[in-house]
Description:
The chain contains 20 helices and 14 strands. The chain has 562 residues and is an alpha/beta fold. Among the domains are: 33-43 and 58-81, no CATH class; 95-208, no CATH class; 365-559, von Willebrand factor, type A domain (Rossmann fold), CATH 3.40.50. A hairpin with a 3-residue loop joins strand 8 (430-436) and strand 9. Helix 12 (270-283) packs parallel to helix 14. The longest helix is centred in the N-terminal third of the chain and has 48 residues, at 2-49.
Amino acid sequence: MHRFLVTCLGLLLAAASLGPSSLAAQSSRDEKAAHELARTLDRWHATWSAGRIDLDAPAVDGGRVHPLYRGGALFHRPKETISHREAIRRLFDAVPSHATLEVALATLAIAATDLGEDVDPARGVLAIRSRAREALGAIDDSAVLDALIRLAGGDRRIAAGRDADALRLAALLTLGRSKSGVARIMAERQLDDRDRLVRLAAAETLLERGDPRSVPRVADRFAIETDAAVCQTLASTLARSLPAGATTLGAAETRRAVSVALAALGRVDWRVDVEIVELCRTLRCTDAIPALITVLERTNAEGLDEAGNGFLQTRAHEVLKGLTGAIFGPDDPGTWRAFWERERATFEMPPPRDPHEGAGATSSGFFGIPIQGRRVLFLIDRSGSMGAHHAPLGAGSGTSSGKPVPDSTRLDWAKHELMQAVDGLPRDAFFDVIIFSGGVDRWRGSLTPATEGRRKALRDQLAVVEPGGGTNIWGALERALDLRSVRWGDASPAEVDEIFLLSDGEPSVGEITHTQDILDAVRESNRLRRVRIHTIYMGPSDSPFMQQLAADNSGRYVRTGR
Length: 562
């Protein structure tokens, strides 16, 4: 007790020794530092927006500081060399500790860059926007948070002469990382806005928060929403929030939300349906079983060459098997319907099983990953390092049995496994192949039927492919996903259902080689397209980049070499 009193007294004396003038001086210095940070962020944004910043060029080089950053204390370390990419990261790191409205608005302007407009991924816009939102999400100053919430609600006065519409979208998206309960309520209110981008931003915010308390409001909107992108995000929000609310939501609220989702099957497009099927997988409720059988009936009636039908049918069939334990085929909805009519009165849900168990029983595969789509694109690296000897991991590595030729190279193995996969495709499937090194060559230029003639033509073409050059992974993905521009909120359809990317190295050449920029660009453009991206890595140890690329895009990652 005595020691505690002495400590308190010491703290009081220390505070008293500062005096009013010292505290005022400290406050003045803090305000000056925050003002200077805001000015630096604004200068950086203006220069970057004008295309005058190369993110990987030096910002500080051996003590020489770029004029953009002079006047602050973040870049005055002797003999230091950092890039503009690292410099903006440091500026963002300083935002939470200098949380004034001026600083928040300057950061928000960066987070709002090109929202709703075409973006050149090579500028690193997507990564910078994401980092800016992270900085804003770390602010805990109540006055600043209140201003951001009001801005997200449409209060244009706070924009202070900036683009109020873009700032509103960025503020809404930022609220997904805020711990404020008021932020959740504000996002829920914006679900009824007339602007689809505002509704989409609100839905994305609620998806990121994953709060079960938002389920009734999300279900209300989902029941009447017609925009495909918003519907898809609302379905994803229910898929994430409903399981989290298993112990807090009432049975009536849960049942209604599930009923709304199941009623939406077939109402908008196949990508929304895939999200609803995922909800069925996670919730495991009997109401989903007849709805999934209806999906099989519809996809069989429309045909698997209809956009997305093959992928949707495969996913619905997987989930149906997992929910029932039955093993009827995806092309036999009549048997499924008869089974359910016979069993539903006494049906008991079996325990969950591994979603990948038996996933490839009726499909081709590439390095052990089942091919579930009907429109498939293979991206094959032929860079110089692909000429190295390939030592498979052995049993369980996913490769076919036996070497294709003695002393096989990585490229030999890739060709062999590619032909195994293509030979196993059903005749109603479509495929194409992109071969890349420093350049990018697409074999057919568009998807082609998996006929015997096309398989033979591919085999002849692969015979003359030799290793050489760098690793232009961005170029291959850009060609596969049509990534010439990326627009937030764009739900334009993709040509393919599924992509398999094989490489043995990190990006080394091409318009973009920074792995985070590639990940951000692909994730942003593909979130609503729902193209599943699998990655196969032939290096001696795991590739975090390839692992993340698959994880971000609902795919699987395999390493097959040592």
